[in-house]
Amino acid sequence: MYYQPWTLYSSPASPIVPACHHTIEVTGEGVVPVAPQKAIITLGVVTENISLTAAQKENAGTVTNIIEALLSLSVPKEHIQTTQYSIDIQYNYEDGKQTFRDYKVTHLLQLTIDKIELTGFIVDTAVKNGANTVSNIQFTLDHPETAYNNALSLAIKNSQEKAATIANTLGVKIHPLPCLVQELSRANEQLPSPVSFAMKAVTPIQPGELRISAAIKANFTYS
C-alpha cells in the first residue's frame, strides 16, 4: 500500500510536501509485544480398522464423548468446529506389492478458548475422553488490527528517526514529512508462542507473548 502525503493533507493550512527529488529512502520497523487473549486448539481422533463401518462408528463415538466433555467445561458449542473429516485407505508395501491394511478415519476439531489459562486442562480433558492427536495450539488476539496499527505508527516514527540521522550526518536539511510511504509485507506478524507438553496432571501450556510487527518504506526529501 502506498501513501502520498500531499493527497492525504488537502487542507490549505497543511504543510506542502515537495515532489520526490533528492530523496533519502529508509525502512521503518515497529514491534508491539502483547499478551494473547485466546487460544485456538486443533485436536481430534484418528481411528483405524479393517472395517470402514467399524472405524467410522468408533471414531464418531469418541468424538461425541470429547464434545460432551468440552461442553461440560462450559466451552460454548459455537466454539467447537470440525475442521477435517477424512477417510483414507492404508496399504502395506512388500516386495514392490501393495496390499490393503485397513481404513483410517480422521476427525479434527478446532476449539476457540477465551480463558487461555484453561488451555492445558482442556487438552487433558479431550485426551482423557479419547483424543489421540493434538496437531496445533495457537495463541492470538481478539482484535489484532489494533496492535498492528500501533506497530505501524512506531514503524513510521522509526523511519523519521533514521532519515533524520542520515540527514544530520550528511549535513543537509530534511523535510519532516515523507513524500512517499509504502506499507511492507506483514508476514510473521504473530510469532508462534511456546507450547510444552508433559505427562502431568495438567499439561503445562505456556502462552508466552505475541509480537505484532509492522514495516514501512519511506522517502524523505532534503535540501
UniProtKB/TrEMBL annotation:
InterPro entries: 26kDa_periplasmic_antigen (IPR052022), SIMPL/DUF541 (IPR007497). It comes from the Bacteria. Pfam families: SIMPL. One of its GO terms (biological process) is DNA damage response. This is DUF541 domain-containing protein. The lineage of its organism: Bacteria, Bacillati, Bacillota, Bacilli, Bacillales.
